[in-house]
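Hi, here's the filled form for the chain we discussed.

Project: internal
Contact: R.S.
Residues: 279
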Amino acid sequence: MTKTPDPFFFIQLSDPQFGCFEARGAAPGDGTFPETALYETAIAAANRLKPEFVVVTGDLVQDSDNEAQHSELMRISAQLDHNIPLYLTTGNCDVGNTPSAESLRIYREKFGNDNYSFDFHGSHFVVLNSSICLDPSEVPEEWDSLVDFVRSDLDAHSPTSKHTIMFMHHPLFADSADDPNRDIRYIPHERRSVLLRQLRKHEASGVFTGHWHENHYSSDGDMLMIISGPVGYPLGDDPSGLRIVKVYDDRIEHEYFGMDDLPNTVELKSAIGRASSTH
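And the returned structure, exactly as it came back:
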């Protein structure tokens, strides 16, 4: 008899985007980053709560050429307990709205692979470079490679995984898989449909994204489509914060916390239902 995987949780951070406050005229002007205190608070919370891993869903910095922004991101990231894996996802600010071979090369030299997967406690996690999905016009071969990766990876791992969960920066859609194309807000239908076909085939449990700097929740059948608020500069009513995601045998639960309302502990317990949300 197969043993039921133990429940666990991870923390999703999105859009630390060092330099965004300054770009929007909201920095103190003394050379410091308002993002520093926010990201330090998030990393300290992870060290206290001890998730299985932390994932950052893109827009790591505002300006990919700015070494001060990159250095501050890496300095604080290094404060994470070394027993807690940190997984990075690329965003449009990291490689451009229309990524080029050069912008991808620079990102990969700094951060490593931008399309990859990993496993925890019987669940499979896939990380994608959604900027390639948004507009691969300068690097069409990268889109082909990404699709090949998704197909082969999910074919190999999903049949034996309790949950399949995807991380990317841009949402696949806002409210429905049939949403019309809308600039850089989410993935265009032409490529969205390719990814959704694979996610539906393998009965994925959820896609966790950022990009909007505010929270938004929808679904495609049983698959959650989560757009998470920012660690850094907010663009909506939601404060800077982080998301705690609990993974059970039969469901996923998630909740967003503002930086001034972070929990001291995370409780894992059993209940019925495949996937649920606490907003």
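Let me know if anything looks off before we file it.
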